[in-house]
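Q: Mannose-binding protein C, please. Structure only.
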Amino acid sequence: MHVRNETRVRRFHAVSYTDKSNGARYKRAQVFRCSTCVSYQLGTEKKNFWKKKSTRHKRMTISAFQCLLFATLCVVVTSDINVILDNAKVKAKGTFSNKLYYISNIRVGSFNLARNWCSSNGGGYPAEIESLEEFAFLESLVKPNSGIRVFIAGTDANKEGTWVSQRTGTQLNVFDWSAGEPNNYQGQEDCLELLAARDGRLNDVSCYNQNEFYNVVFNVLCEKDLF
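A: Structure for Mannose-binding protein C:
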């Protein structure tokens, strides 16, 4: 039994007794020093009030802990973004899902140099597009930067038209090609870029800037797993 008045809870203890007519056991409360109490009878068929209160308290404690953990994680992630990147070397950056994406300020002449830049700056790798939602986010990151061309992950050097990640070998299946692409110009276009001038859409390009047809350099769009 839970016993209380308007201002404070009185002391009590439970007393068990047996109904001799049917052998059933019950609990009642013996209350001390309580002249104006409001009482709540707990029979064997009802749940214990204090047990329910304890359960609610535990649930509230767990929820509070989860909120604190999430807030701490957000602080750590935000701090990590600021620590791992030198803003002077980054043209644009943003987060999507559990990943950080950033575009280099410098330009490079080959995919290998692009991959090395990502690794040396933030510990990332050229972005690997896995969903339409991710693709739309990356296009929105590239488009505002007028005129840039950015390397991302993807090569069909082993089999024309079958694009795979250079890092994992996993086949890529999400594309938003620029008009007329891919065309494998001069039979040398085995890598991928996003073009700001074409709304951030895909184009196939040479992996190396080493001949008269590819006297261009590229920024690189990197991806970094946050957790």
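A: Brief note, in case it's useful. The chain has a mean pLDDT of 77.
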